[in-house]
Design a protein that fits this description.
Helix content is 7%, strand content 39%. It has 157 residues and is mainly β. A hairpin with a 5-residue loop joins β1 and β2. It is globular and about 40 Å long. Residues 1-17 and 107-116 have low confidence and may be disordered.
């Protein structure tokens, strides 16, 4: 019986949450442009629409090396989802405008990035963004907690 339960214990939502859950964020705090490394930019508008530029896939899709640009929607929700408790922002690209491949972080990485290998980004995609209240501002992130990787987006000033 133990052999059956061990594999099930690896991915438990909230298991890796090491920061306090954000519960009182407002939509006004989410509206704006958020940036990350290598030209990634996510703009969330007050009407619930969004524009994404060069955003990497989430969790296992991050390993696929694709980056997506497109348009879609976002919302601030209290529904249980993601890896932590508290509020989340589901961000959906419903219309992909471009797909690219990112360079591997390690030059020894065997993943080819010539633009013709691997699968392109899907036509539509949804991220579950976690919220983290930092000293000066809110941060958005998504991660693969089993690999301890986090992808942080910070709001442009």
């Amino acid at each position: 019986m133990l052999l059956v339960l061990l594999p099930l214990s690896g991915c438990v939502p909230g298991q890796y949450a090491d920061v306090p859950a954000v519960t009182r964020a407002t939509a006004a705090e989410i509206v704006g442009t958020w940036r990350c490394v290598d030209g990634t930019e996510v703009t969330m508008r007050a009407d619930g629409t969004a524009a994404v530029k060069q955003l990497d896939g989430q969790e296992f899709d991050f390993d696929s090396q694709w980056r997506m640009s497109g348009t879609g929607t976002w919302e601030l929700t209290d529904r249980p989802m993601g890896w932590s408790d508290g509020q989340h922002v589901p961000l959906s690209v419903t219309r992909r405008t471009s797909s690219a491949w990112r360079e591997p972080a390690d030059a020894a990485d065997e993943v080819a990035v010539d633009g013709n290998s691997g699968e392109p980004a899907p036509d539509s995609y949804t991220w579950t963004l976690e919220l983290e209240r930092r000293e000066k501002a809110l941060a958005l992130n998504y991660s693969d907690p089993d690999n301890h990787n986090a992808y942080y987006l910070e709001k442009a000033r």
